[in-house]
Amino acid sequence: MAEEFPRGFPGRVPVGMDALKQNWGWFLALGIILILLGTVALGSSVLMTIASVFFFGMLLVIAGALEAVHAFWRREWNGFFIDLLGGILYLVVGLMIAANPAASAVTLTLLISMFLIVGGVFRIVGCLAVRVHHRPWLMLSGIVNLILGIMIWRQWPLSGLWVIGLFVGIDMIFNGWSLVMLAVSAKTLPSTAAEQSA
């Protein structure tokens, strides 16, 4: 029996499906590794928070250095001072974050909390003001964001030591499971159009 494929691919396997079927084991292995790393991150969320914030600070340092070098490399350009000041700003902020990742994590967690609260309120108000097709899901998303934001804010500054690591761990686990499910479904894909029509 012929398998159903997305519209726009009548009678043939979409581009990349053969490669996905042939390499499903790599996707499965990567998914399992991400699940394991995410579980470790959840178990040591404080360490993961500090490591993530330090890594973010180093990324800012690298970006700032590259932007400053670019500014001097293209000195004749009108945006020389904008590039230079932007690079210096990235560099200074990155060094400050990398030098004290725990204090930076506390500040970033407060920002995350405020973002979740404001985003949740906007989604709830938007649901009440405008009729949209996915209204129940949007309302649920807004309520969850609002509750998460309030919970993080009420435990702040202590929450600053574990929230980022917790979010990174949860993201790794969900990403890992999505890759595992992709690998499992890819294993059963037909590898050629001839196989599909058989």
- Biggest sheet details: none
The fraction of residues assigned to DSSP E strands is under 5%
What is the oligomeric state here? single chain
Helix content range: over 70%
How many domain units? 1
Secondary-structure element order, N to C: HHHHHHHH
Number of strands: 0
Global Rg: 23 Å
Separation, N- and C-terminal Cα atoms: 7 Å
How many helical stretches? 8
Shape designation:
globular
Structural class: mainly alpha
Overall mean pLDDT: 77
Low-pLDDT stretches are 1-5, 7-15, 193-198
Question: Any overview of this molecule?
Answer:
The chain has 198 residues and is mainly α. It has one domain (23-188). Helices cover 78% and strands 0% of the residues. It is built from 8 helices and no strands. The protein has helices at 17-22, 24-43, 45-73, 80-99, 101-129, 135-154, 163-187, 193-197. Helix 4 (80-99) packs across helix 5 and helix 5 (101-129) runs antiparallel to helix 6 (135-154). It is globular, with a radius of gyration of 23 Å. The model is unreliable at 1-5, 7-15 and 193-198 (pLDDT under 50).
Question: Can you lay out the helices and strands and say which pair or pack?
Answer:
Elements: H1 17-22, H2 24-43, H3 45-73, H4 80-99, H5 101-129, H6 135-154, H7 163-187, H8 193-197
Helix pairs in contact: 2-7, 3-4, 3-5, 3-7, 4-5, 5-6
Give me some keywords for this one.
single chain; 198 residues; mainly alpha; 78% helix; disordered N terminus; disordered C terminus
Task: Give a concise summary.
Helix content is 78%, strand content 0%. It has 198 residues and is mainly alpha-helical. α2 runs antiparallel to α7 (163-187), α3 packs across α5 (101-129) and α5 runs antiparallel to α6.
